[in-house]
Amino acid sequence: MNMTPDQLDSVYITLCETADSAGEADESEFLTRLVLLLALDVGDPEVIRRRINEARMPVAARRTG
């Protein structure tokens, strides 16, 4: 299922607000747990690895690539 731009924006806002509320000390743990929980939904290790590598790219590279 693909999300609309508005849905993706809403998810992004929720993610940012939740990460901020976790506090600097717990933000990394929250994001790691979230990725692992979402990985269970995706279910394909290769897709997960590809997305992890995509997330490592600088934002400017993702916009042009």
Feature tags:
4 helices, 65 residues, single chain, 0% strand, mainly alpha
Order of helices and strands: HHHH
Q: Would you report the number of β strands? A: 0
Shape: globular
* Cα-to-Cα separation, first versus last residue: 23 Å
Q: Enumerate how many helices there are, as a single number.
A: 4
Number of domains: 1
Broad structural category:
mainly alpha
Q: How helix-rich are the residues, as a percent range?
A: over 70%
Give the DSSP E fraction (strand runs of 2 or more residues): under 5%
Q: What's the gyration radius in Å?
A: 13 Å
Estimate the mean pLDDT confidence. 89
* pLDDT < 50 runs, ≥5 residues: none
Largest sheet: none
Layout of SSEs?
Blueprint lengths: L4 H18 L1 H19 L2 H12 L2 H6 L1
Helix pairs in contact: 1-2
Description:
There is one protein chain. With 65 residues, the chain is mostly helical. The protein has one domain. 85% of the residues lie in helices and 0% in strands. The protein is built from 4 helices and no strands. The chain has helices at residues 5-22, 24-42, 45-56, 59-64. The chain starts with a helix and ends with a helix. This is DUF2783 domain-containing protein. It comes from Prauserella halophila.
Please summarize what this structure is.
The chain is mainly α.
